Structure formats: C-alpha cells, structure tokens
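Hi team,

Filling in the usual template for the complex we talked about on Friday. All components are listed, including any nucleic acid strands or ligand strings, so the model treats them as one assembly.

SUBMITTER: L.P.
PURPOSE: interface mapping
COMPONENTS: two
RESIDUES: 709
SEQUENCES:
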Amino acid sequence: MAAVTRVKGQRRVGMTGDEAVAYAVKQADVDVIAAYPITPQTIIVERLAEYVNNGELNAAFIPVESEHSALSTCVGASLAGARVFTATASQGLALMYEILWIASSMRTTIVMALANRALSAPINIHCSHDDAYAARDTGWIQFFAENVQEAYDLTIQAFKIAEDKRVLLPTIINLDGFILSHSLEGLYVLSDDDVRKFLPPKEPVNPIDVERPMTYGPLALYDYYYEFKRAQAEAMKNSYPVILEVFKEYERISGRRYAPVKEYGMEDAEVAMVILGSSAGTARYVARRMRERGEKVGVLSLTLYRPFPEKEIVERLRGVKAAIIMDRSYSFGSPGAQLFMDIAAALYNEGERPLLINAIYGLGGRDLTPDQVEAAFRAAFEAAKTGVVKERELWLGVR
Amino acid sequence: MAGQVKSIKEIPREELFAPGHRLCAGCGIPPLVRIVLKAVPGPKVVVTATGCLEVATTIFPYTSWRVPWVHNAFENAAATASGIEAAFRILEKKRGIKRPKIIVFGGDGGTFDIGLQALSGALERGHDMIYICYDNEAYMNTGIQRSGATPRGAATTTSPAGRVIPGKMERKKDLLGIAIAHGVRYAATLNPAFPVDMYNKIVKAASVEGPTVLHYLCPCPTGWRFDPSRTIEVARLAVMTRMWPLYEYEDGRYRITVMVKKPRPIEDYIKLQGRFRHLLQPENKWVLDQLRRDVEEFWERLVRLASASE
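RESULT (copied from the run log):
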C-alpha cells in the first residue's frame, strides 16, 4: 500500500482489524451473514450482529450451529442472489473444508475474512498461516492484509472482484490473528456513499429463480466433470486482470494504491525476502536498517496470494542472488513449506533465478524479531557469496 | 383445510418431476417427490442432500426437476436451505423478490446421521422450510449400509446377518421425536400406500410458517430385497403391522391418522423382504421378539400421546 493520502470524504478512525472488516462489510450493504464464533474472528461477527440488531445494516444474520453449516448456508444464500459474508479461523476453516471446494465450483461469490490462526494440536489461538494455506487449492481468491487499513480496503474490494461477471469466485481476506484482528490502528474509511458507488448492489448471474428453474449442483462424472474443472481454472486465471482493474478503480476513490505484490528495495537487491501478512512490516524495518549500512536487501510481500502473482514475483526476483521465502506454517514431508513451493515452481523454468532458502517463523503466534529477520538475510548473503545453500530450511526463533 | 383432498382423483395432474430419471424400478422416492411438488402450492425451491434422489435425477446435462433445485453436499441440506430461505426473506424486503417455499429432501443417512446437526440448527433457528426425510432405512446409494434409521434385526452390508450377530442389533432412532423436541409446529409420517393421507399432510405442512418435518417410509426393492412390483404392498403392510404408524403432530397434539385396530403380525411384513428373512429362523427368534416389542412400545406410546391430545 502506498502512503496514506487524505482524500475528501474519508474519516480517520481507530479500529481493530476485526472491527475494520466488520465496518467494511456493513458499508458493502451485505445481504446475508452466516457465521459461527471462533477466536480471533469473533469480533467481526459480533459487530455485524450489532449493526443488524441496531438497524444499521439491513441483512439476515444467521447464527449457525457450526462452521460447516456457516459456509453451507452462505452457498445457499449466494446462489439465491444475495451478497454474502462469513468469517472464520483455523479449526473453523478446517471444518468448512469440504464446502470450500463446492462454494468455488458452484461459482458462488462469498467473501470470507480469515483471521489467521494456527491449527491444533496443540490447540492455540494465535497466528500461523496454516488455515490460509489449507484453502490454497480450493479455488478461492485469497488476499493477505498487512495492516488494519488493508484489511478494510481489501474487504470492500473483495466483493467487487468476487461478484464481477468475469470472475464469480469466492474470496478470502487473510488478516493475521491477534496481530491484526485485535490490534487497534488508525485508518481512513470511505463514506458510505463512495462505497455504494464503487460497489452497487450485487447483480447475480443465474440466481435461483422460480420463473427460470435451473438445477444447481448436479452429478457430473467422467464425461463432464473434467470440463467443469477446466472452466474453473479459466475463471481463476481471468480474475487476475479484473483484480488489477478493481485495484485501479479503488485507488481513484480512496487514494490508496494496491498491487498484487508490494516491493521494498528490490531495484538493486542482491538478496530478498518474500513474505505474507503483517510480518512484512518487520521485514521492511530490518531491510531499511541494513540498506542504511549499504547492504542490498529487498522485501517482496504478497497482497494477492491466489491467483498467485507468478509473473510479478519472477520479474522482481530477476537479478537477485538469493531469496528467503518466509512461511508461517509447515508442510510436513513436503520439499519446503507452502509459499516456498509456490515460488520454487514459479522460478523453475527461468534461466536466471536466485538460490532459495525457506525460513519457518512465528508458528502459533511467536513473535518474529528483527534479529531473526537479519539472521535470515545473513544466511541469504552467505548463499549468494558461496553459490551454495547450506541449509535450505531454517527455523527462526525455535527453541 | 384449504387445498386438502378426499380422493386421489383430486390431486393435481401437473408433473414438476420429469420422467427419465434413473431411480430403480419400484423405488419409493418418485411417488413422494411427485406428490410433494403437487401438494406444495405456489413458487418453490427444492434442496436435496447427496443420496439416491440427487444422483439419479441430475446426471449432467440432464435433470428431472422443473423447479429450481439445489444440491450442496451430504450433511448440509438443512443449512443450505437455511441460506436460501434467509436470502429470499431479505431480498424480498430489499428488492421485492417474491419468497418461494423451501422444500428439503434428505435420505435417512443425510437426516438421521450425518445431517442431524444441520437439521437441528435449522429447526432451532426456525427457518421456513418443509424438511422431508425419505427413509429407506439404510445407506442405499453407497450399497445398503446400516444407518441410525435401520430397524432392529435388518441385514445390511455393514450389519450382515452373521452366525453370531444376526443383523442390526440396535433400534431405530425416533426422528420425529427429535424434531418435535425442537418445538416444530407440525410433523408427520408419510407412506406411499396412503397417498391421500400423504397429500393432505404435505398441504398442512406447507401452510405452516416455520420449519416442519415429514418422515416418509421409502420402500427400496434393491436394499430390502423384495419384488419391485410389490412396493405399495410392502408399504401398506408396514402400516397394517404397526411397523410404520401414520400419525401427525400439530401444535402440541398428536393424532393417529390411520388407526390400525387389529394389526397384522409383523411376520407378514418381514417375510416379503430379504433383509429380514433370517429373523424367521428359530435361532433368531429372540431378535424378532425384540423387534416386535419395539413396535408395540412405540405404538402404545403413540396411542397414549394421541389420547392425551383429545
């Protein structure tokens, strides 16, 4: 996100990440909310319930009996033509897992806030990106917010992207549990009018209509299933230019510029760090200090995670000698954690590509310290110098 | 009550469930679906859980449904229907879109077992829907595995009639008891051999604002192992032996809608079906006796509830 600019009609307010998401959902004039309580998401739906019960939001708030039913209810509501929102985290996302696939394949336009939280066991309520990664292959568009402002802005934009006729895919906004969900920050909010102009009521494509009866969710075997999946793959690819378009339009009303990838110091970086979520700030802070000492480091942080901004990342990493890929999760038995595998795959066919180191950090909400970030950069410099990656997998700050 | 009929001849002829589906010959599902779509007046949307009805009627690119029809997954038909109902309710207010009646079909697996939580939630929240369980008393779509609806003694592929354990050893869950405990205003059992009783109960359910639950005995020639030409006969015997009492619950009152004063012996029902055949062997008489006690106990309870309602 570019520096915050003051634009007429915006208000400066203090909100937590959860409150900012709820406020954005209210301004989006959502029709149906179905959710089940889970920390650290709960404040989002508590605020929404207040908005509805106080008459500030004309929506159906459905307090379902599980996350599985939350997403199932959202699927039904979205097919009926409603603008739909839900929120969850961790175990809740895991319980929704079956329906994540159905929601995207049925081309619903559900928007979900995911207050990222570590998966059990042991049970933990703090941040890991396990839940976001668990949804990685399910056909949802995914954004990562770095701060509360982004959580607010991305929520509003998510509805426009998901509901675009060229897209029709459900969308997740990731916000780091507690670090963003519960942190009070200052942010600019748009006026209701501006949001309404940017995001008019949903114009559903083929909604349930008794005058035009259709069959939703049929059986398709080896003669048609394959083509359904291919069409879905195309939809995900097609969402990319729409996302860019929506970012541009949003910049016009908000003055805040969004891009799939944010970069710092990449113009001349010898080593780089690629990271998701709120820790990007820590990475940039360390990079700035190191650059002041003349060390050429850069940071790439992803605002868009699915569809994966492959081209942008490959371009930005061109000329970089070694890169640290930061994963706040782990993929047991895999050749690297999730973001590492994505980036390694994206780079594989490039003639010129950096050496890659995978750094695991912050699991279960453990702080990522500047020292750890600097140690990771040092490992990258070492690899860049010797041309060899001694340890491909680093566990930052583990005892 | 308006819309109710006295004879099968008064039932509307319009068919909203098209032929050409791939349900088995003699399957009990089509008579249910056809009558439901005739009995529920006005605009309607059907939600169906994964199961025989879903797989056999919507094989892409074909469909048997002349009404909007939605399938999401196995255990979430009631939750999916909740979302559709709530969406139409709010869209009616915000954009004047007319709200249809929501009808849900789930098999016994999708209702008694895996879908019970979603059903409980939907009933508790009070969504306006008619939930209909077509109960063929086992997981027929996956090849006849026992469910919480399988009656005691019945042989299925996961409760086979073995030398040591002769079929399912547990009694059937009381689905309507569970539904009624949620405070639904109307609940009733249905049976294809009594189409007028069935039609009128559906009309009643449709007239209620809020959730109602209907429980339909769905004979399955494939899983129960009987001649597909005898579906209605088997269904009728279930009522005449008191194996399947026809009753309704309405605003706190129970009523037996087909009184069976002199029941036929349950053997008359059982001997037609391969799933129960082993119960007629002398060494399994104890299971048959238990099943008979289940049937007697339930009937007596029902008679008590009905007479207390008078």
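MY TAKE: Residues 8-309 of chain B form a domain with the Rossmann fold fold (CATH 3.40.50.970). Chain B has one domain: 8-309.

Thanks, L.
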